[in-house]
Amino acid sequence: MSSCKTKTDNFFPCLTLFLGICVTLSLSYAKETQPEDTLQVNHFLNKIQQWSHHQDSELKVTASTVIAGLLCFIASSISSAGGIGGGGLFIPILTVVAGLELKTATSFSAFMVTGGSIANVMYNMLTTSSKFGGKILTDYDIALLSEPCMLLGVSIGVISNRVFPEWLVTILFAVFLAWSTFKTCRNGLLHWKSESESVNRYVTLKDESYDGTSEEPLLKKEEINNQLKFPWMKLGVLVMIWFSFFVLYLLRGNRYGQGIITMEPCGVGYWIISSLQIPVAIVSTAWILCRKECCQNKVPNHQEKDIEDLTSSGPSNKLIFPFMALLAGILGGLFGIGGGMLISPLLLHVGIPPEVTAATCSFMVFFSSTMSAFQYLLLGMKHTDSALIFAIICFVGSLLGLLVVQRAIQKFGRASLIVFSVGIVMALSAVLMTSFGALHVWSDYTSGKYMGFKLPC
Fold first, then answer.
1. What does DSSP assign to residue 353?
2. 369-390 burial, b if ≥16 CB within 10 A, otherwise e?
């Protein structure tokens, strides 16, 4: 065991995996009492498990952690362009490369997603787009309608994760992300085609009727006037909703009775406080919808046009965003990743522009990720300093990714780059998370563990 730790501290992760495979093959020929294939897989899994637990007691600066930090920097740069958290990439990197346990990697991921989302929110608050009349890209109406149900969905998903067997979670994750990746890439191709046609028309018109005049100063003046109208009221409502759920989490604690008040582990009080999230989400969403109906006489601006069209036609259209957020929250809590990766393709599917989708998703991810990070802190999370370092790395990586992608969009006029970045992150997450889920399922099966449904407590 000590030799295994020494190897992993001195060599790169790829070399460690290669040695593990070699040892597995050599040991499999020494034991003829068991099937050869089973021995190879079991020894390979044992080597991975020994490797992945070597740093759990004390996280040190090694070649593995440095490489993990570099990979997380790249992952956050790619994820930030689409406004998604990137937890589907962070968790595999931290478990395989840095050698952290899954529980520790999940807590680290919450801080890293928070760091990246802070960079996104700061950038989007200070950036306007002439394409949308000089408005900021974040659609606070979508965020208002979605956030209560998303927070509720996360709690439902976490409980479902305890009940569902791991093989079912892995299958659902693979199927949903495969469908989402296909839809996202398809939307990206459609946006790319539409952008190509627009560019060709613009070049043609410019060549045929260019008269040397420009109305750019008037547009800039309009952008400056529109910048002053920041929706502080909507932001305050979002903070109040977040704080309401946060208070419920503080009172409830976890299923082991760990919280700010003494409570029977997973007892009646635990479930009563948990169920209070349902009326909070329903009342918040109903109040927001009523407020929008009262303000329907107000002329919608360019940025609010999409949400106004969807919330003024009928009851089914009014609830489209809350239902999408609830689904994204449930799946995010079930799979252990952020909801931004799941709600982003849904928003693109209903026709929200890529720029608005990315900015709005990053804003929503900020609230959900900070909620998770605070919960880990209150429950006695370890390695907080290291988690903050990784969060800073993701903050810098997200800023760099945003600057590069936005510069590319301004230069080439290709907002579809945002859609493709979302598709890349989802495809990589599907492959990595599904592969490791399948390994854990096989390990449980060969060890004879119970593979059926479980109780929530």
1. -
2. bbbbbebbebeebebeebbebb
Instruction: Tell me the pLDDT tens digit for each residue of 266-307.
Output: 888 888 998 999 999 999 999 998 887 787 655 454 444 444
Residue 448 to residue 418: CA distance in whole angstroms = 45
Quote the pLDDT of residue 231: 82
Q: Which two tokens stand for residue 85?
A: 């958290």
**According to the model, what pLDDT value does residue 396 have?**
94
Which helix (H) or strand (E) covers residue 409, if one does? helix 384-412
Segments in the chain below pLDDT 50: 1-41, 44-45, 47-57, 210, 212-228, 299, 301-307, 310-315
**Distance of alpha carbon 4 from alpha carbon 155, whole angstroms:** 39
pTM: 0.73
Q: Who's near 178: CB < 8 A, 6+ residues apart?
A: 430
Write the CA distances from 27 to 5, 8, 31, 267, 321, integer angstroms: 19, 20, 7, 48, 55
Is-contact 252 273, C-beta < 8 A?
yes
Q: What is the C-alpha separation between 191 and 357, in angstroms, rounded? A: 13
